[in-house]
């Protein structure tokens, strides 16, 4: 079947019946530029909408947090950034990301100070909100996206096209659009306000480097990603296992591993330089990065701990200390199969699946997960969009639903609706070959229609009805349960798919029995 | 809502595919339009909101007398009926929108999204017009036209950010043109009459319509011609009677007309539209300066153009003052070659070009022209742009220039990236689309002479024979290229260098530069179109 699909694609590439020929005939560069400009327009459009915590004192939201970090990094010496003091009250949006985020805040702070000094002055700018201030902050995200995420995607697409050279240019164009027009990422970064584009962009760059065989570069880029947001560790097992598996197959495994280790250590040392001189300051920063006191889950995130807490009150049954251990064990256990597969038989496709599976197990089972963390499994899924379009579509749909309550609070519903519709439209762009509906697909398609229907009804219900007084968060809980069930199902399927890469015949039988 | 769209998508496979593709383009555009809803909106937004309130709260007899707000009703009656129709829904959504006094400058989310969505929905009219005009073309031409019209950055800027209903009105124009192209003259004339009663500025093309319909529809002997003239006349009269009848009944025609034609507004708008009068004003200034240098006593004009307010006194110091009547004569003079052509050889396939030419003349020589009026010819010209390489080259330049001339409409910093990115995307898509279109026709011509050695494939021009073909494809000459580079230079000067070097001095210079520079481009386009029309006269 794989070969047949390939043949079809070759036919499209040769024939003149390609619908998007007019767009793609000048090569990948021209495709990328036009889609990138389109994606930028969409991002600018979303940036007109409100940000999280707009006009909502005293703590505001993520927008104020990021602005506050600019204020702190700009006005205090580097050593005091993570240090509680009279001028740096850590209980008011204290820095809780690794130093690279702090440096990024510093650079953006310089930009803000040049055009609008009031917006980043120490103390007096707390809760600063103005037309120009919003605009400048939005532009810092836009520029980070355009300077880091976009080039990384271009790099990835070039590498991907080299690996699978038989893929038609229209399909490549579609893949670029899927990567650059991911509604979740755009809404969180340019609507809600965060800088995920930086860490995710660095990760995409690292993935592309791995695929093109530049392992040292990949280590460097991924270490940077880890130092921008510690959540990038969701991908660490996949990087670790794939690179280890590759090294073990080389002549001198120990040398190869130590080379990679040195690059990682070197990058970390460079980023942490101001804090590695004394043990005390190092530990202080470290403790800021792991906020265990916030509990195993917050709000209504669609992961295992929060969903099962409807039945089992984890927080009452166990202490935080034991919960830490339990969640760590669960995470490691669930990502172990995919790691073993990669160490055993490292492959490019398997690596992408490994990224997806390890980030899924972290999202579902690790300690202190936020609903925005669904962006992390979504990234490898979008990298795999051409391989498994249905899974990607499915995941995006429920990732959007899982963030819907959050985006509603941010008053981003119009942006949500238009981006969701745009995603579905571009996913189903005319002239695009749909995945063939075989017989064993019919059960899946019923499930798909049913799921979409549930999600649609939940959207409407959430917007129009008010929940009963007894259960004020009833709808959030229902959304959470639905999303969790889908995520767990997808994790199962993708793990299976990864293992099928190695031994297709044997596992196909198992799969048939299961379905 | 997204689910509904998805549903449509799933149905799409069973529909004729080209209809679904057209819908796809339209829905993608609609998503962007919806996304831009919270962006800057001009006073036109409040103008249209006030008209909703006015038509909803007042009896018809007072519509053209109301002075609650400075934004009095100055569109023809059919548009007022359209606003009355919309006001029914706005009343259901939020009664404050249509409250005559409480609604003034109302700006809650309900009114913003309501009005924005009415514009998005009224673009269905444009969709239908484009569907009618392109349904017989091949798929690649269709695609190109859809990109040019449905994804037009000018429409997005003017209608969905600045706020107006041009997409709706141009849709009716395109419907009328499609009927004429099919030879259904009566329907074409009827649609045009409706358009005139919606917005009278479209009347510039009326002479072309009149001559064309007179010669094309009312031909074939005296009796047949005369009876057809009567039929057409009856159709037009019915439309006008429906529109103006109630006001005629109340004896308010004079008032309606005086509201619709405010000639007191002066020759040029506060921001000069890039037309002929820019050169006229400029040469007046230069002449006055030169004469003063030579020792003549030249009085500075009492009224100034850059000041915005223009009264009765002449704003010119040397050249004669321009009256509305003068502009009318000039427009008709400029139109005359086209009218002669339409009289001699009324061909359906030429009508779109003639109408576009008429609007170009109106834009160049008209009285108090807005920069937005360039839409009236850029959109219809998109239909003919895909026909030949020369047209495509002309359209490429014209479209960029006229879109750029709209930049001053969105003057706030927030929208700056939007307008620049839209123009960039439009230029790239045009370049890709035109080069694909004309690369292939050039290639087809080449393969006709050379035996079919190799089909042009996706990888583009990789062999030497393909490189030769490429040269015959879509290439822009060096004059056009340097003009476009100059456009970028004007923008960089106005946005960055001028504030940096001169500060607050001479604040009108950047806008004036845009007007003058774009005026060259539009004049070029006018001459190009005129040449094309005169040439076809000689044949």
Automatic annotation (TrEMBL), chain A:
Its membrane topology: Multi-pass membrane protein
Alphabetized InterPro entries for the sequence: Glyco_trans_ALG6/ALG8
Keywords from the named record: Endoplasmic reticulum, Glycosyltransferase, Membrane, Transferase, Transmembrane, Transmembrane helix
Compartment annotation: Endoplasmic reticulum membrane
Pfam families: Alg6_Alg8
Any single Gene Ontology cellular-component annotation: endoplasmic reticulum membrane
Membrane-spanning residues: 20-42, 135-160, 172-188, 200-225, 326-344, 350-367, 374-395, 415-431, 443-465, 471-493
Name recorded for this polypeptide: Alpha-1,3-glucosyltransferase
Organism for this UniProt entry: Quillaja saponaria
Automatic annotation (TrEMBL), chain B:
Keywords of the record: Endoplasmic reticulum, Glycosyltransferase, Membrane, Transferase, Transmembrane, Transmembrane helix
First-tier enzyme category under EC: transferase
Main location: endoplasmic reticulum
Pfam families, sorted: Alg6_Alg8
Transmembrane segments: 21-40, 142-158, 192-214, 226-249, 270-291, 322-343, 350-367, 395-411, 423-446, 508-527
BP GO terms, sorted: protein N-linked glycosylation
GO molecular function: dolichyl pyrophosphate Glc1Man9GlcNAc2 alpha-1,3-glucosyltransferase activity
Enzyme Commission identifier(s): 2.4.1.-
This protein's GO CC annotations: endoplasmic reticulum membrane
Topology in the lipid bilayer: Multi-pass membrane protein
Pathway the protein takes part in: Protein modification; protein glycosylation
Family: Belongs to the ALG6/ALG8 glucosyltransferase family.
PANTHER family: DOLICHYL GLYCOSYLTRANSFERASE, DOLICHYL PYROPHOSPHATE GLC1MAN9GLCNAC2 ALPHA-1,3-GLUCOSYLTRANSFERASE-RELATED
Name of the protein in question: Alpha-1,3-glucosyltransferase
Species per Swiss-Prot/TrEMBL record: Quillaja saponaria (Soap bark tree)
């Amino acid at each position: 079947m794989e070969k047949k699909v390939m043949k079809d694609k070759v036919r499209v590439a040769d024939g003149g019946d390609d619908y998007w020929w007019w767009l793609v005939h000048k090569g990948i560069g021209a495709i990328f530029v036009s889609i990138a400009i389109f994606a930028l327009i969409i991002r600018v459009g979303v940036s007109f909408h409100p940000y999280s915590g707009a006009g909502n004192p005293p703590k505001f939201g993520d927008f104020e947090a990021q602005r506050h970090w600019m204020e702190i990094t700009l006005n205090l010496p580097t050593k005091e950034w993570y240090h509680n003091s009279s001028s740096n009250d850590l209980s008011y949006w204290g820095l809780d990301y690794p130093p690279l985020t702090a440096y990024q805040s510093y650079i953006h702070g310089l930009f803000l100070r040049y055009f609008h000094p009031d917006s980043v002055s120490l103390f007096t700018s707390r809760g600063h909100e103005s037309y120009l201030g919003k605009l400048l902050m939005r532009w810092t995200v836009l520029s980070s996206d355009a300077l880091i995420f976009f080039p990384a995607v271009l790099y990835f697409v070039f590498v991907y096209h080299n690996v699978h050279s038989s893929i038609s240019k229209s399909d490549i164009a579609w893949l670029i659009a899927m990567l650059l027009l991911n509604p979740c990422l755009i809404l969180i970064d340019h609507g809600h306000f965060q800088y995920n584009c930086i860490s995710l962009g660095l990760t995409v760059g690292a993935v592309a480097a791995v695929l093109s065989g530049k392992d040292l570069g990949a280590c460097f880029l991924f270490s940077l990603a880890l130092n921008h947001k510690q959540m990038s560790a969701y991908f660490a097992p996949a990087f670790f296992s794939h690179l280890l598996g590759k090294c073990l197959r080389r002549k001198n495994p120990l040398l190869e591993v130590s080379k990679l280790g040195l690059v990682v250590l070197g990058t970390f040392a460079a980023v942490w330089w101001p804090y590695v001189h004394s043990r005390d300051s190092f530990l202080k920063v470290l403790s800021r990065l792991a906020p265990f006191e916030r509990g195993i889950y917050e709000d209504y995130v669609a992961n295992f701990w929060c969903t099962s807490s409807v039945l089992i009150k984890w927080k009452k049954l166990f202490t935080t200390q034991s919960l830490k251990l339990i969640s760590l064990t669960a995470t490691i256990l669930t990502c172990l199969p995919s790691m073993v597969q990669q160490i055993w038989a490292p492959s490019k496709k398997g690596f992408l699946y490994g990224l997806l599976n390890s980030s899924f197990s972290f999202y579902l089972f690790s300690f202190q997960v936020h609903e925005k963390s669904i962006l992390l499994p979504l990234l490898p899924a979008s990298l795999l969009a051409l391989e498994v379009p249905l899974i990607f579509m499915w995941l995006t749909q429920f990732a959007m639903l899982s963030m819907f309550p959050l985006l509603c609070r941010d008053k981003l519903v119009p942006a949500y609706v238009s981006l969701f519709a745009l995603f579905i439209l571009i996913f189903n762009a005319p002239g695009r070959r749909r995945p063939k509906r075989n017989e064993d697909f019919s059960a899946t398609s019923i499930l798909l229609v049913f799921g979409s229907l549930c999600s649609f009804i939940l959207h409407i219900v959430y917007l129009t009805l008010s929940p009963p007084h007894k259960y004020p968060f009833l709808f959030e809980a229902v959304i959470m349960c639905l999303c969790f069930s889908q995520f767990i199902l997808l994790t199962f399927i993708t793990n299976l798919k990864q293992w099928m890469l190695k031994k297709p015949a044997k596992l196909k039988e198992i799969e048939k029995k299961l379905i | 809502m997204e689910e509904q769209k998805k549903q449509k998508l799933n149905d799409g496979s069973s529909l004729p595919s080209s209809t679904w593709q057209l819908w796809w383009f339209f829905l993608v555009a609609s998503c962007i339009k919806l996304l831009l809803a919270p962006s800057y909106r001009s006073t036109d937004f409040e103008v249209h909101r006030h008209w909703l309130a006015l038509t909803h709260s007042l009896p018809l007899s007072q519509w053209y007398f109301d002075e609650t707000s400075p934004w009095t009703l100055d569109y023809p009656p059919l548009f007022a009926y359209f606003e009355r129709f919309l006001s029914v829904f706005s009343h259901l959504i939020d009664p404050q929108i249509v409250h005559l006094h409480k609604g003034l400058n109302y700006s809650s989310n309900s009114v913003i999204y309501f009005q924005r969505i009415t514009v998005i929905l009224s673009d269905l009219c444009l969709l239908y017009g484009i569907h009618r005009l392109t349904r017989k073309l091949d798929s690649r031409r269709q695609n190109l036209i859809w990109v040019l019209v449905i994804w037009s950055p000018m429409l997005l800027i003017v209608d969905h950010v600045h706020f107006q209903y041009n997409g709706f009105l141009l849709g009716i124009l395109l419907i009328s043109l499609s009927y004429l192209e099919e030879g259904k003259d009566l329907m074409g004339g009827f649609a045009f009459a409706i358009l005139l009663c919606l917005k009278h500025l479209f009347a510039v093309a009326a002479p072309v319509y009149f001559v064309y319909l007179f010669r094309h529809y009312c031909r074939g002997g005296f009796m047949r011609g005369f009876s057809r003239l009567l039929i057409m006349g009856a159709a037009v009269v019915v439309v006008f009677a429906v529109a103006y009848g109630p006001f005629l009944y109340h004896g308010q025609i004079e008032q309606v007309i005086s509201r619709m034609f405010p000639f007191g507004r002066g020759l040029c708008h506060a921001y000069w539209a890039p037309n002929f009068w820019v050169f006229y004003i400029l040469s007046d200034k230069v002449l006055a300066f030169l004469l003063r240098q030579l020792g003549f006593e030249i009085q500075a004009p009492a009224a100034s153009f850059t000041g915005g307010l223009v009264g009765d006194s002449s704003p010119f110091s040397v050249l004669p003052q321009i009256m509305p009547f003068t502009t009318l004569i000039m427009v008709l003079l400029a139109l005359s070659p086209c009218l002669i052509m339409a009289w001699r050889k009324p061909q359906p396939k030429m009508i779109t070009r003639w109408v576009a030419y008429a609007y170009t003349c109106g834009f160049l020589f008209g009285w108090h022209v807005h920069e937005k009026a360039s839409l009236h010819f850029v959109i219809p010209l998109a239909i003919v742009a895909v026909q030949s390489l020369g047209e495509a080259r002309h359209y490429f330049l014209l479209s960029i220039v006229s879109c750029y001339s709209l930049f001053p409409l969105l003057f706030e910093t927030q929208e700056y990236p939007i307008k620049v990115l839209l123009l960039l995307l439009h230029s790239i898509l045009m370049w890709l689309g035109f080069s694909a279109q004309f690369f292939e026709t050039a290639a087809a011509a080449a393969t006709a002479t050379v035996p079919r050695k190799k089909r042009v494939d996706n990888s583009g021009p990789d062999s030497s024979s393909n490189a030769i073909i490429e040269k015959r494809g879509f290439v822009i000459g060096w004059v056009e290229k340097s003009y476009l580079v100059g456009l970028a230079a004007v923008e960089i000067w106005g946005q960055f260098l001028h504030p940096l070097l001169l500060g607050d001095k001479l604040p009108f210079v950047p806008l004036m530069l845009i007007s003058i520079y774009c005026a060259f481009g539009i004049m070029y386009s006018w001459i190009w179109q005129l040449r094309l029309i005169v040439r076809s006269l000689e044949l």
